[in-house]
């Protein structure tokens, strides 16, 4: 048996250590991992727990992120709890196996500490790795701070392992801003945390030889389509389970999670839609804007996949102007968050004036001033009833203003 | 406790504990199924098997069918070693925690890959899994070509073979590179047991497979797997072509223990010329034109040198 950690009511942990602690409390059977900045301390933290006897699972230190996810898939198919962590290039290297993990319906938890994708090489946080995972068939949850990184890890195991879900889950946090900033954390005790997640229930495990299983079969045009459609259905059907687990977590901790988090939206007329740590910055500015008479709010998808289509539409109904904030190089298109939010609103007949702000690539700070300007522009759009600039604008960028699409 | 199964004769071996269904899609005459079946029949222990993408994988698990009457997993082209290593880690963890359904039944972990996935694209995954010391056996079904995708060269393709990406032509004798010595490379990892084997010498092959499964730690077995389609010979001749490979010493049979002790396990009574082996296959046909005589000579010289090297190592016990 693993040693219990003498946990305090309030701990001072950064996002990485918070995630590592949640992984320890989940009593994972196998972690197969490879270190990469800025998620390395999760892997190191877990290794230290192991060497101090706080973990009694297996820790497999592999030779690449591709192998890390491959080992996780093999381990998960053998019927136990599995998790790992990565960032950026490591995430990119894993992509092949991410699709295989979800296709095989293996409930692995992957901590993704968001970081930019090269080239140019950059170790700081943006959301390009998070966006790279968005068609991979994984449930994706987004933490805006270290406490949430801890909470969402516990929630991720429970959601992914639910017999009606059986899908892998990513928990995202922003590189450095969340992962390396120590904050007060209110953890559950080891016993409470484990009881919340529960024992792992193996399904179709390779170590039950009375029922041989074949994992990773080939299906061509006669069956592949049905399999992928079923997988899509499974991830969409996870929505009520996610809501249920959020409720159970609230009962236990008082901390309430929603698939879309609204801030000051009850009477808002203009809203910023953002992900990651930018959400908290936007909330501060929204509050400030109220003093200027701007009815500002913030809407943040907590669950990115399955995409909270209905909740987004509901949260943003009646808005006059909306800014969708994309922290990933859009590569010749509008930002992905903009596209998805706009699609949800269009289906609801929204007349809101939509703007797409690209910001913060490679860890460039999103300043309070930038957000003030954004809210003022939203306000101007709302008042004039038309867009004052172009649809897509780059904020916080050197040189002449870059804006596209009309 | 696992025990080494006693096998009296080939007939008994071929029918005992058959967990590899005959209804698969491999070509008639393909040696893969012989090697896989004998591995699965040579033990009564439970088996967790992984396969890299390749001929074996695409021919044995096409939904809604499977040829595997045991636990089997395929992830990608390159990662069968890591898949089975992950399963082995899970087995250890669950055994320790007491969550296995049948904790006392012996379990063996085996990965299969073709030479494309073993010598080339999956080499890093194999190397990593062996370095970490997982308790598993990796078997390379070495047909010296990317057969599944229609005959492209791999780093196991020997010099002078015509492959679709190194075709023989008016001014080319085909593949220019020598076959990579993967057995030597895996022995250099310090694996407790590494061997080269061939299905025509079934007793030798079974002995090596059984030793591999009984060995604690990573084992690498390189099996010659004659490919009727890409080597271009009549499907009925699989075993006789393999006889030519082992008796010409193109494919010598030996084992290396702990990376330091080499034993030759088969010495042909009559060593045949290399050109007899090459001449029996369409992939080397062009080498018999006068302009490529020097390649034939080079072939014989290389095989002689390698045999000399293996004998000297065995003699010196290194």
Secondary-structure map:
The complex is a heterodimer of chains A (406) and B (318).
Chain A: E1 11-13, H1 15-25, E2 30-33, H2 40-51, E3 58-61, H3 65-77, E4 82-86, H4 88-103, E5 109-114, H5 128-132, E6 139-142, H6 146-161, E7 169-174, E8 183-185, H7 190-197, E9 214-215, H8 224-253, E10 260-263, E11 270-273, H9 278-291, E12 296-301, E13 303-305, H10 309-315, E14 321-326, H11 336-347, E15 353-358, H12 368-384, E16 392-394, E17 403-404
Helix pairs in contact in A: 1-2, 1-6, 3-4, 6-7, 6-8, 9-12, 10-11
Chain B: H1 10-15, H2 32-41, E1 46-51, H3 55-60, E2 71-73, H4 80-97, E3 107-114, H5 115-121, H6 123-131, E4 137-142, E5 168-169, E6 172-173, H7 182-188, E7 193-197, H8 202-214, E8 219-224, H9 228-232, H10 238-247, E9 254-257, E10 261-264, H11 274-279, H12 293-316
Parallel strand pairs in B: 1-2, 1-3, 3-4, 4-8, 7-8
Antiparallel strand pairs in B: 5-6, 7-9, 9-10
Helix pairs in contact in B: 4-6
Short characterization:
The complex is a heterodimer of chains A (406) and B (318). Chain A is an alpha/beta fold. Helix content of chain A is 40%, strand content 17%.
Q: Which tags fit this structure?
A:
heterodimer; A: 406 residues; alpha/beta; Rossmann fold; 2 domains; seven-stranded mixed beta sheet; globular; B: 318 residues; eight-stranded mixed beta sheet; two-stranded antiparallel sheet; 12 helices; 38% helix
What is the spatial order of strands in the main beta sheet of chain A?
3-2-4-5-7-6-13
Given the C-alpha coordinates, what overall shape of chain A results?
A: globular
Q: Name the average pLDDT of chain A.
A: 97
Structural class of chain B: alpha/beta
Can you give a write-up of this model?
The complex is a heterodimer of chains A (406) and B (318). Chain A contains twelve helices and 17 strands. Chain A is an alpha/beta fold and 406 residues long. Chain A folds into two domains: 11-253, Rossmann fold (3-Layer(aba) Sandwich); 260-404, 3-Layer(aba) Sandwich (Rossmann fold), CATH 3.40.50.920. In chain A, strands 3-2-4-5-7-6-13 form a seven-stranded mixed beta sheet, with helices on both faces. In chain A, helix 9 (278-291) crosses helix 12 (368-384). Chain A is globular. With 318 residues, chain B is α/β, with parallel strands linked by helices. Chain B has one domain: Rossmann fold, CATH 3.40.50. In chain B, a hairpin with a 2-residue loop joins strand 5 and strand 6. At the A-B interface, strand 3, helix 3, helix 4 and strand 9 of A face strand 1, strand 2, helix 4 and helix 6 of B.
